[in-house]
Amino acid sequence: MRFVARQSELRELGALAAAAAGGRGGATLIVGEAGIGKSTLVQAAVESLDGWRVLRASGVEFESELPYAALHHLCAPVLEYRRELPAPQRLALETVFGLGAGAAPNPMLVGLAVLSLLGAAAQDVAVWCVLDDAQWSDEASRQALAFVARRVGADRIVMVFAARDVASVPELDRLPRLAVAGLAASEALDLLRLSALSNLDGPVLERIVAEAGSNPLALVEFARDADPLGLPNVVTGGVQGALEAQFTRRVLRLPARTRLALVLAAAEPLGDIMLLRRAMTVLGLDAADLTPVVEEGLVVAGPRLYFRHPLARSAVYRSADARTRRQVHAALAAATSADTDADRRTWHRANAVAVPDESIAAELERSAVRAHARGGFAAASAFLERSAQLTPDASRRAGRLLSAARARLQSGAPEAARELVNQARLGRPGTADRAELCLLDAMIDYHVSRSIPATLALADAAEGLDPDRAREIYLEAFASLMFSIDEPGRLRRLALRIQERVPRRRPPRAVDLLLDALLAQNLLPVDEAAPAMRRAVEAFLDQTRGADANPWWMERACVLSADLCDEVAMEQLTDRQVELARAQGAYAILPHALRFQAAARVMVGRIDDAAASIIEARAVDEAAGTTNLLGSDLTLAAWRGDTGRFREVREALRDWAGVEFTAVFYATGVLHNGLGGYEDALDALLVARDRQQQGSYVVSAFHSELVEAAVRARRPEEGKLSAAWLEDLARASPTSWAVGAHLLARALLEPGLGAHELYVGAIGRFAHTRVRGHYARARLLHGEWLRSVGRRAEARVELRAAHELLKTVGARAFADRAVRELAAIGEHPGVGETDPLNALTERELLVARRVASGAGTKEVAALLFVSPRTVDAHLRNIYRKLGITSRRQLRELQL
Does the keyword Magnesium apply (predicted)? Predict the structure, then answer.
């Protein structure tokens, strides 16, 4: 097609190229209806490039279920650069491209690997990537390339996508858009004249322009078929339908052998010339049979054979009858190697039969296993669904439909999974499959809503399963319900039901001990529950040495260790959970793990380290385009006394009130205790305590906060229940943290001079722990008490120590409270020097800390899901703001 107009669009693409050549990469999504000229526009932009590497791929309708197919086509020319990637990224790419064996990698790790791969290629020469007809590409490829497109700002890379509309490519909806509209009437006439169709009369040309809606492809195709003395042969029903009909008419005019060869080409999405020749031989055809369509430009022959427009491919395939389609797929299956491309061969075999065939169904099932291993859950489901269609035995068919439904659910398509479950229900599922069917029904509802009814239904569905699997499902349902604020007693009733219906396992796994611990925590007094809780924590501490430990269950063990006031185990488990989530590429869990790590670090007074965990968690959220629970973000803001950030996160948590209920009100209590708003602190903490279910993530810090607020608000009676809880915990789990918290609560509630010894005892206990923030606050409370009873000299010592400790850990509001107390006895601590690190953004601070600890550029890039060049850009800003010039100087700052 000749190229006319589009000068403004070309300028936009040219600006992208110019910026990327200077190290500021970018991306765009070109949208417009079929035939509007998107591909022609991109080709014109490519032809204007000088010295660039151009990588191309096109979506093909028949490949849309094959995971990473489009990505593989695009990256194939630069795969030699994978040797420069960190090992996890290299393995992820090799796994999804079938170049190596490995567990299914997380899509975010694949995206990061592609970013690193293209970044490495762009070190040599600027890279222009094109994904045309993106609406027909596979979802996994679009996800990976969208991830890359949002992160090329510091690289010499341009990412260009073309699609018919944004709705068809939701993964790309965050990219800048370039809309391509129809040609102006004068431009349309120019195109027709340039296309050697000027033998048509003026009125006919004008009618073509009107009928085609100024769509360039429609203009040329309608004019090609028009009678020079009459009107074009246009079909009503929209330009796309008319174009498909136009291509169909052209196909039907071809010789029979050419039509058959053309249908064969339409059924082979790769355009592999050698494969097509082998298949043509099977059909008794030869290359000459394609000559007519090559000569008239319907297909283009080169290193690969491709259709001039995707509508032509679909029109050719749809115009063929079912028998012809089966014939060409059988030929393609015969021509495809079972060793090098088994899955495509199987897919062609499946499309070559019209009746059930168990041997092909079994092949499809094996292809599904391979697709699942590559992380292609949607593809696995497609293979299994087709396998079920070809399965003669009704019971086995139901089982394969359920397997397809499970894969669909894993791919994030719960409604499609529900449809497959319903199909299985209509068959004859066996006993085991009926239990699986009930479980999938419940899992789909749970996946969609996480509502209390869905959670209870999930627990109901566990009853028909084998004991080991049932315990895991019960654990998932029970732990989920613990997060919810529900009617009193429901959680206890579920705990009793689980205890009655699930036999104990001998020997127990770590996950079994965890379920036992959570049940005990919710059914028994703390002194009776503590041994079971401790056994679960110890089991998970032992499990941290295994690379195959489950980071999801470890999260619950982290909470148990906090409930037992075992800060050593808490830190070990949270750190190991983060390590495992990173190592396994479990990016759905990683933000949760990082936020639990942040909460643990706040508890032990590592507030700056907690902030680093939160920043990394946000980076994962941003990369995944998800929102995760923000309770730790709120707790961090509260301990820092950052009211602005607190309000921002609190607003974001408005819709999560049922899930993060205790965290919200605990953090509110901390904030107001730090600021001196004790009434507000107490009111918030009482609401949470009154509505909190027994055993549900209640740690000593919550009750300690409440006792302090009650006493300072001069409502000590309100704190006695929490003080009693702390006493019970100290007896059940006599760690220095638990005993220190108990003694501090007693000191606060003690009306006489006997409080002094209790304060000293609490401080002595806290001094032997890692919970430095609580140790510092105990000294602050002691200093406040000493001042209140007139022991000013002793108060000054305690308040000075508290102030320095609180400044060191980063608890600014409490440090300010110590300053106010010191001012009341005539002492005014100096403000101190401004910390130069305050000039850094959160992201820059995290980069600085990581680099100062010895991490390399690629390691930091992987951590933040950005390219190495982006990390280098951050480092340049860091050096400038801190007045340094090297990594060595950065390390010397002892961040």
Answer: no
Q: Contact 210/39 with Cβ under 8 angstroms?
A: no
Do the beta carbons of residue 329 and residue 266 sit within 8 Å? no
Nearest to 58 by CA among 300, 279, 296: 300
Residue the block writes with tokens 């279910």: 693
Single out the residue of 702, 678, 676 nearest to residue 818, CA to CA: 676
SS3 of residue 854 by DSSP: coil
Task: List phi, psi (to 5°) of 296.
Answer: -90, 5
> In sequence order, what are the beta bridge partners of 54?
128
What pTM was estimated for this model as a whole? 0.76
**Phi, psi of 30, deg, nearest 5:** -90, 125
SS3 call for 503:
coil
Has residue 321 been placed in a domain? no
User: Domain containing 842: what range?
Assistant: 836-892
Residue 787 has pLDDT above 90, yes or no: yes
Q: Give the residue ranges of DSSP H helices in 199-238.
A: 202-212, 216-224
Q: Does a structural domain hold residue 566?
A: yes
pLDDT surpassing 80 at residue 484: no
Residue 544 is predicted with a pLDDT of 62
pLDDT digits (tens, 9 = 90+) for 16-45: 999 999 999 999 999 998 888 888 899 899
The answer to whether the beta carbons of residues 137 and 64 sit under 8 Å apart is yes
Return the ∠ at Cα 726 (arms to 725 and 732), rounded to 5°. Answer: 90
226-255 tens-digit pLDDT: 554 444 454 445 566 777 777 888 888 889
In a domain, 367, yes or no: no
In this prediction, what percent of the chain has a pLDDT beyond 90? 50
Q: What is d(CA 35, CA 220) in angstroms, rounded to the nearest whole number?
A: 10
